[in-house]
Design a protein that fits this description.
Layout: H1 2-8, H2 23-32, E1 45-50, H3 53-60, E2 83-90, H4 98-115, E3 118-122, H5 127-133, E4 141-150, E5 156-160, E6 170-171, E7 177-181, H6 184-187
Length: 189
């Protein structure tokens, strides 16, 4: 059952923007992270929920969307995320928690998938711009990751890595998104 959930938990970059995510469900997703591992049990991560139109616009304007798709600047209006969860690190409790960020982000994404949503973990963020627009004090919190969430409006297909070893994701003329993955035999040493 977990393998099915993990295989369905893909990166989505286009959404049915008008299908909102209730704040209570966003809070449920963040609540999952309270039970995950944390470096030295510091529990330094904090979360900022973004779901109002103005704040969503501010977040969107601070993001870079797909490095492997240089001709695509991100989802169009109507296909943008319904909500965002920003992962912050409380600097009074620690700093530089990339392992914690990854664990929390994947846990949230798995929970979102189980709820019928999809998302994208974004590290390409104009952090100063975002902090200013959301009134996040950079002396108190670092902005580590932005999770874009919504009802997926695209098909993502897992395919084998090509013979040349290229693992870059790509889209076809129908905007189907392909993600090459290595075979099990290729990742066991």
């Amino acid at each position: 059952m977990l393998k099915v959930l993990v295989s369905k938990c893909r990166t989505y970059r286009r959404f049915y923007e008008t299908q909102s995510i209730p704040v209570e469900e966003l809070m449920e997703l963040v609540d999952l992270t309270r039970f995950t591992a944390s470096t030295a049990n510091s529990q330094a991560l904090k979360f900022r929920l973004v779901y109002t139109e103005k704040e969503k616009e501010n977040v969107f304007d601070s993001l870079g969307w797909a490095g492997a798709l240089p001709d695509w600047s991100g989802p169009e209006k109507g296909e943008r995320p319904s909500a965002y969860i920003i992962i912050l690190c409380d600097l009074s409790l620690g700093k530089n928690k990339p392992i914690d960020d990854g664990i929390a982000a994947q846990t949230i994404m798995l929970g979102a998938t189980e709820m019928g949503y999809g998302g994208c973990m974004l590290g390409n963020v104009k952090r100063n711009q975002l902090a200013k627009s959301l009134d996040i004090d950079p002396s108190l919190y670092s902005i580590d990751l932005v999770l874009a969430l919504g009802k997926p409006k695209e098909e993502v297909v897992i395919v084998p890595v090509k013979e040349d070893g290229n693992v870059a994701y790509y889209r076809d003329e129908n905007q189907i998104h392909y993600v090459p993955k290595r075979e099990l035999k290729d990742i066991i040493v």
